[in-house]
From TrEMBL:
CDD domains in the cross-refs: MoaC_PE
Main EC class the enzyme belongs to: lyase
Residues binding substrate, per UniProt: L82, C83, H84, I120, E121
Cross-referenced Gene3D superfamilies: Molybdopterin cofactor biosynthesis C (MoaC) domain
InterPro entries per record: MoaC, MoaC_bact/euk, MoaC_sf, MoCo_biosynth_MoaA/MoaC, Mopterin_CF_biosynth-C_dom
E.C. number(s) listed in UniProt: 4.6.1.17
GO biological process: Mo-molybdopterin cofactor biosynthetic process
A Pfam family matched in the record: MoaC
UniProt xrefs under PANTHER family: CYCLIC PYRANOPTERIN MONOPHOSPHATE SYNTHASE, MOLYBDOPTERIN COFACTOR SYNTHESIS PROTEIN A
Name assigned to this protein: Cyclic pyranopterin monophosphate synthase
Gene: moaC
Record note on quaternary structure: Homohexamer; trimer of dimers.
Catalytic residues as annotated in Swiss-Prot or TrEMBL: D135
Domain Molybdopterin cofactor biosynthesis C (MoaC): 22-157
Organism: Undibacterium luofuense
Length: 166
């Protein structure tokens, strides 16, 4: 099933009085939850060449960004106020470079068996992975731009499967 919009007419993180609260997932079924997200960072061609050459004085930029992205998924509930802490069962982060567009894309796939989804964890992985690239390369290229961060798909739970239609 492809969906591009939610059918809900209410925000779930607010009670009837309009006060913020953590959503009660106690009565939800435990299911296999999967989410994939992607984003990219644009940079000068020289910056990408420096990353690809492996000559960056801070080390393996993409390898370090991958570790940062994975670590970020495990800390998501500490940074997003109403996000549930989750026991993640798998986190995979991949980077793809394009010399034609001077970009590095980051795609994260996060999985758990639980009562709530892992969309925010996947989005967090992508953002932190790309921010790590920015941090490591800002000395040579302050004009890098992080863009197009989005959820690609999610599955599991009552709402089933959702995929972005591009």
């Amino acid at each position: 099933m492809n969906k591009t919009q939610t059918n809900h007419n209410e925000l779930t993180h607010f009670d009837q009085a309009g006060q913020a609260h953590m959503v009660d997932v106690g009565n939800k079924d435990v299911t296999h939850r999967i989410a994939k997200a992607r984003g990219l960072i644009r940079m000068l061609p020289e910056t990408l060449a420096l990353i690809l050459s492996g000559d960056h004085k801070k080390g393996d930029v993409i390898g370090i960004a991958r570790i940062a992205a994975i670590m970020a998924t495990k800390r998501t509930s500490e940074l997003i106020p109403l996000c549930h802490p989750l026991a993640l069962t798998k986190v995979a982060v991949d980077f793809e470079t394009s010399q034609d567009t001077s970009t590095i894309s980051c795609e994260a796939r996060v999985e758990t068996f639980g009562k709530t989804g892992v969309e925010i964890e996947a989005l967090m992985a992508v953002q932190v992975g790309l921010l790590t690239i920015y941090d490591m390369c800002k000395a040579v290229d302050k004009g890098m731009t992080i863009a197009e961060v989005k959820l690609l798909e999610k599955s599991g739970g009552k709402s089933g499967t959702w995929r972005v239609t591009e």
